[in-house]
Amino acid sequence: MGRLKPNCSYIYEQADGITYAREAGQPPESRFEIGRSEGRKDLDEHDLVNEMRLAAKTNPALRKALDRAILIFKMSDEYARQTRIKRETSSY
Known about the structure:
With 92 residues, this protein is of the alpha+beta class. The protein has helices spanning 38-56, 60-74, 77-89; strands at residues 10-15, 18-23, 32-36.
């Protein structure tokens, strides 16, 4: 149950794909996160990848790790499927 207390009443709020809870009668500042929508998780992950790419410009170890991850992705079946679909649907 996490931070939710048994036998307490809660007010649930949702903003920007994040669900919050706070005890009834408590100020809005006391709310805490209890979940995220899949769309929000995707946005957060996208932001994280962008931050990693920027940091890799000055961090050789991170750059090397990202290069390896890119290589693994390009060798994957998913990448092959995506590029095949792009080639098949592009019009010349």
